[in-house]
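Q: What does the assembled structure look like for these inputs?
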Amino acid sequence: MPICPVCEYRSTEWKEVAGHLYSLTRKSDATHVMWLNRNLTIKEVDVEKLSEMLEEFFSIRGELSSWIREKFIQKFYGENPHPFILAMQKPNRAVLLGYVIEHQHFLKNWVKVLSEIIFKTDEDDVVKYELDNINVEYFGYNGKPSHYELLLRMGESLGMPRKEILGYSPLPSTKTAINTWRRIAIERDWVETLAAMHSLELVADKTLRKYGAKMHYFNEAILTSNDYPQEVKDFLREGYEADQSHAGEALTLVDKYSKDEERVQVTVLRSFDAFAKYLTARLERAMEFDSKVILQ
Amino acid sequence: MKIQVNGSKAGDKESGCALCGATWGDYYEEIDGERLFFCCDVCATEFKNMLKEVKNRTGWKKIDEITINGNFYKGRTCIAKSGGNEFKFYVRFNDNAEVETFKVTD
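A:
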């Protein structure tokens, strides 16, 4: 059922939602204008055209998971890939440290939000999936160190003591993004939270290029390069190998349990918005170590 | 003030918002004696806060020209000009339209 992605006004027709959005843009309503600017087009169009664009944007061809994957690629790997992903094609020490310092906060929040999914769901396969994910991210499995531990080791290998890494507070953008995800976990249905969080793992999904991504999360040559410490390779390899199955499995659960697809779409877009800001925070932190880190 | 956003002229309804280049909306503010078009009040506040920061750091009374490249997520790399002087910087705003990050890039 057609939905306004900002205030969730619903109608039976996209034309009515377009009319609603259009009338609010005439009043320069910031939240509606911003959504259009950031997701559809910065050039004003009439209601008719806007209706077509909204319908096209939200139409699901096949499964909801395909739509999520397509939007993720458009936002982070499309014509203008996110600058953090560009920086990861040849990351220097500053970029990797920016990653470590901000990501520790992301990972701590990650398991808290997943716990909220467990709290809210009655589906066994979802509980098992989330517990497994929490294990991998925070405790490790089969004797292997956790993702969190590998991240800290990467930081240490770059010359920053663990105590110093842990002493950093998150940058404001990281904090804002974390608050968005916490709000989603508390206020939205667990399926929406599941979709919002695990679709972010698509970032390191190596199959994305098959679906149109222009590049991978990082230059895979790093994994065999002598220019990076082993701990950097260990951390990147872990995500490279885990996130494909993590995201894929979660999206299958989203397809299985979603009852209100439009609400899931709206929530996923909010999560992508937060993620884009958070990735920029990693680069802003990197700029503290190397002022030449390019953000554009 | 001559304004360029992502390679195009901006600052009126036809060319787009003085900060982001969007042609949605219908919001105007008088800034440094000129009536400028913005898509919303948030962009207008961000623009004013950005100019204020530049003036504070340079001591300039007036900005003749500003070139803005980027967007909300990535932040914006800019060049401000006044008289024969040039000032290059990176700026990003928070959700309340305040300057969250400001770095001189030259």
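DSSP finds 13 helices and no strands in chain A.
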